[in-house]
Predict the 3D structure of the following.
Amino acid sequence: MSVGTAQVLERCRAEGRAALIGYLPVGFPDLETSIAAMVTLVENGCDIVEVGLPYSDPVIDGPANQRAVAQALAGGTRVADVFDATRAVRAAGAPPMVMTYWNLVLRRGIDRFADELRDAGGAGLITPDLIPDEAADWMSASERTGLDRVFLVAPSSTPERLARVTEACRGFVYAAAVMGVTGVRSSVGAAAEDLVSRTRAVTDLPVCVGLGVSTGAQAAQVGAFADGVIVGSALVSTFFDVTPREGLDKLGALTRELAAGVAEGRAR
Amino acid sequence: MTTGRFGMFGGRYVPEPLVPALEQLDEVRQKAAVDPEFLAELERLHRTYTGRPSIITEVPRFAAHAGGGRVVLKREDLNHTGSHKINNVLAQALLTKRMGKRRIIAETGAGQHGVATATAAALMGLDCTIYMGKVDTERQALNVARMKILGAEVVAVEHGSQTLKDAINEALRDWVTNVDDTHYAIGTVTGPYPFPEMVRDFHKIIGIEAREQILDLTGRLPDAVIACVGGGSNAMGIFHRFIEDADVRLIGVEAGGEGIESGRHAARFAVAQPGVLHGAMSYLMQDEDGQTLESHSVSAGLDYPSVGPEHSYLRDVGRAEYRHATDEQTMEAFRLLCRTEGIIPALESAHALAGAIEVGRELGPDALLLINLSGRGDKDMHTAASWFGLIEETS
């Protein structure tokens, strides 16, 4: 059995730091580079890779991710490409979590998708537009395959929702730290820390914080109170308006900065 | 969970941050539905602002081309702002105030829902932002001007197909960011629960009035009730009161665009499989991978790749039937109503007329058809004039 997200998060906790979780979409800027980019994340200190599956109507994504997934789809990216990416990430030594809007899974068939993902080394799914209330079939497919299922909590979540959502999660909980779509933000906000502590009050699962982090300093700041720091748009943006080679170099440098950030987080 | 589903269709496929707002909306609208004060205020607005009840008009010169039976129009085009959309929007604006929110946002395709929302916002002192696909802002420029005159901000959405679907994406992004003080007034019977049920309930007055009116006029129920179906709000509005009248056929007319075989259409029921878009499970035009396909129609208001979940349910259980009218059939029906009856219909509604011509010919001279004329065609003059070659193209 390959290493799951829970074990990685446990190891990071033992090291006295938060985990670094990096998001990149498959097929951006092209399929080959996107897979090389995910491997670059792992080689430069990223603990878990969030493998994005491009979707035509990404309603919780901001301009950077929209631009990237639109380019990936225009370049012919198919759902099956995600499994090449998860294999590569697994081979590089990190658990791949696939981030996908629900219709893509539904269309392929929930059980079929789960089987293929498990066989391709996938650790589980992050589902931004699937709430536990609608997830009965995914709950049973993930039980059967041993895949992690990560649902979101948000600053607007009531204590009842926090309990309901975290009870359904396996692996970790995704705390969407600010209300809004994905994208780089200059300050990560006090709401994030409050959300993490309210979430911890109802679950023992690790709580990872996403939406808005772009620098090592911010990663350190969030890593001081969260179990994992999720970075997306800032990583994606390293490929805008440069050659793939230059993008990979920029990506490697930013990943090292973010990894150093989470490493110092708890030391302060 | 079964709450908010019509059979397998509907549900609530949304990002978690929106769930509290949907729960609040559901609670507030259920309370309002039995609150005499709310109902009286809505009734007063219907009567003194919208101009309800809307009349019915029998159209014998049109009917002569539709099998020679009797054809009756429910005149939602005569409502203030020019379509049925105002019924839903006034009610949602009242709910917005009840929830203590100060801002209302909406998507719009043809601009009818946007104009209605901007109108309600002006009436009730709410801030208003309307999202509209860039393609639609061009083909419905007059409605863009109307919304701006009414004080709304209009955002032209340049992503994707730049039509209704992309306007909804952008409105959802706004809502997830500003949900504390903002209500998203979805304009049709789609979206996450409770929208499909709530919007239907705010439009069911159409069918309640029409059933009584046609009984008064003809002494019997119609053989068929016919309405165009984009998201499907005007159709659900007029269908709902007739659902228990088993002998009344309920017929929805989708946009056949340039024909099914061309791939450029919005005839979801002709080709689509169930899927999830914008918070609801319903029939959806999608590719093999589940990516949303672009729809096409001469009418912006029907140019949407999915359909309200209750329509999917009514279709699957066999209570409603759906057919489609091509752009060409629609424009012919549009011209026919203009020339025979002096009524200029919206291009959306002209699909229902095109469907009625077919149904009337199938049923023959004993038939009695009730058509929901959901909107008026002033906004479509540019499209129609170009189609019929009545103006010179300036570009």
Q: What stands out?
A: The CA atoms of residues 222 and 229 of chain A lie 7 Å apart. The first helix of chain A runs from residue 5 to 14. The first strand of chain A starts at residue 19 and ends at 25.
